[in-house]
Design a protein that fits this description.
This protein is of the alpha+beta class. The protein has four helices and five strands. The chain has a single domain, classed as Gcn5-related N-acetyltransferase (GNAT) (Aminopeptidase, 3-Layer(aba) Sandwich), CATH 3.40.630.30.
């Protein structure tokens, strides 16, 4: 099942995020809960989950950004694409990305962007097979 996150999904999502760049499990404290509540209450932020047998196995985050160009149509950014190791290559991430694309389209976005730090050709082909291309733009990051 593909759906948007609810308040009850925090623990399962944090468990999944531990597999994203080998992040450690954060302490669930007031600061983290405030961020979680802020994300859930922001209509422009979509935390998309794939669930299998009641377990969160894949996810991505879609953020819709207002814009003054392109006919004042917003654009969207996808971040934190991750699937649990034992559930990879089963279509969960693709389903999350398709859900995100549909949400961006419903919000009137003229494009969706994502970046990946992985350089593996299989990863780049995965994103291309999901409808993204690596030829139109060049991505840059400045870490803060």
């Amino acid at each position: 099942m593909i759906r948007e996150a609810t308040r009850e999904d925090l623990s399962g999502l944090l468990t999944l995020y531990a597999e994203l760049h080998e992040n450690s499990m954060p302490q669930i404290d007031g600061r983290l809960l405030k961020i979680w509540e802020e994300m859930l209450s922001d209509s422009k932020c979509h935390i998309i989950l794939a669930e299998e047998d009641g377990k969160i196995v894949s996810s991505c985050v879609l953020v819709v950004i207002p814009n003054l160009t392109h006919g004042q149509r917003p654009y969207a950014l996808i971040e934190n694409v991750v699937t649990m190791k034992d559930y990879r290559n089963r279509g969960f991430a693709t389903a999350c990305l398709n859900f995100a694309r549909d949400a961006a389209s419903a919000a009137g976005c003229y494009k969706v962007m994502l970046l990946t730090g992985l350089k593996l050709e299989s990863t780049l082909r995965f994103y291309e097979n999901a409808g993204y291309n690596r030829n139109d733009k060049t991505g840059f990051i400045q870490w803060l």
